[in-house]
Design goal:
- The protein is built from nine helices and 13 strands.
- By secondary structure, the protein is of the alpha/beta class.
- It folds into two domains: 235 residues, P-loop containing nucleotide triphosphate hydrolases (Rossmann fold, 3-Layer(aba) Sandwich); 56 residues, Orthogonal Bundle (Arc Repressor Mutant, subunit A).
- Helix 2 links the parallel strand 4 and strand 5.
- Helix 7 crosses helix 9.
């Protein structure tokens, strides 16, 4: 029998700060977790907003930055394909990106069972083939035939997703419902079924509606948690998407030519590809404004973007 591997604590792997977040302050890099809430609380809209943000490198909810964009794999069990497309198109319009260029792949199988060995293998094969940064499964109730209240049945399915996350190096977001009548419970404790869901999560998002007010709570295993973020579903022409209510003033504060010149000078002087986190550190400004500056520079052909970040265009 081989001995257990052991290393001194000071030799444990350290993660650079700019690799800590998949979506800054919203979802940790390679985290598994829950997006929870009662029915009709826009959970699917938020999951799709996260997909668009990660795949395009634009801020989620027009506020939360994505340091390193990447592919997203999505399974939407409750919505028809044309509804998923329409919602993605609306969010893309709000984020000023093209659906055609969006690196989001949608599983179109009519059913997917996490408690079925064949489907487990098919999901693993898809993740291996596509190498997504995040896997979104929406919602959990349509992905099994187990008793959600029985820890002995829930734990193996969550362990399977954890194992997939570790083996393939991706984040996993599971959309799940809250219990009825749990409006005053702590968000994580309000989830329907076993307490295993809350214990399993590294990052979690909870949507809650009080009267007509929709709020978002953010919870992490290894970072500060926050709550009470007001969000609303806004319709602007063809764009139907969630927005942070307090983000409106920032969105209406346009970047100036000076901002663009500062960022372009930084990219040109570095001569290398820079992440958003590196640009913010050397050229401080609001993240929302920086993304708009970068988008303008890319559209104007003065900068280029790849999976690692941004760099000045060759002259």
């Amino acid at each position: 029998m081989s001995a257990l591997p052991v290393v001194p604590a000071h030799l444990l792997e350290a993660r650079p700060e700019d690799q800590r977040w998949l979506i800054e302050t919203l979802w940790a890099e390679q985290a598994v977790g829950i997006l929870g809430g009662e029915p009709k609380c826009c959970k699917s809209f938020l999951a799709l907003d996260m997909a668009v943000a990660i795949a395009s490198g634009t801020p989620c909810l027009r506020r939360f930055a994505v340091p390193r964009p990447g592919r997203v794999l999505l399974y939407a069990a409750e919505d028809a394909q044309h509804i998923v497309r329409a919602r993605l198109e609306g969010i893309c319009a709000a984020a000023d990106v093209s659906l055609h260029d969006l690196d989001v792949h949608v599983i179109t199988a009519p059913t997917l069972r996490l408690d079925h060995p064949d489907d487990q293998r098919r999901l693993d094969d898809a993740v291996e083939r596509l190498e997504p940064r995040m896997l979104i499964l929406d919602p959990f109730v349509r992905l099994h035939r187990i008793d959600e209240n029985a820890s002995a049945e829930v734990a193996p399915l969550l362990a399977q997703l954890r194992e997939l996350q570790r083996r393939r190096g991706l984040a996993v977001l599971l959309v799940h419902h809250s219990r009825k009548g749990a409006a005053h419970a702590r968000p994580g404790q309000a989830l329907r079924g076993s307490s295993e869901f809350h214990a399993w999560s590294d990052s979690s998002l909870y949507l809650r509606r009080t009267d007509e007010r929709l709020t978002l709570a953010i919870e992490h295993r290894a970072a500060p948690s926050t709550g009470g973020h007001a969000v609303e579903l806004r319709e602007r022409g063809a764009a139907l998407a969630l927005h942070l209510v307090e983000a409106q003033a920032v969105a209406e504060d346009p970047p100036s030519k000076d901002h663009a010149d500062r960022v372009l000078d930084l990219l040109a002087s570095s001569g290398d590809t820079l992440t958003v986190a590196q640009i913010v550190e050397r050229c401080p400004m609001r993240t929302q404004r920086l993304y708009r500056v970068l988008a303008d520079l890319v559209r104007g052909g003065r900068a280029t973007r790849n999976e690692h970040g941004y760099r000045a265009a060759a002259r």
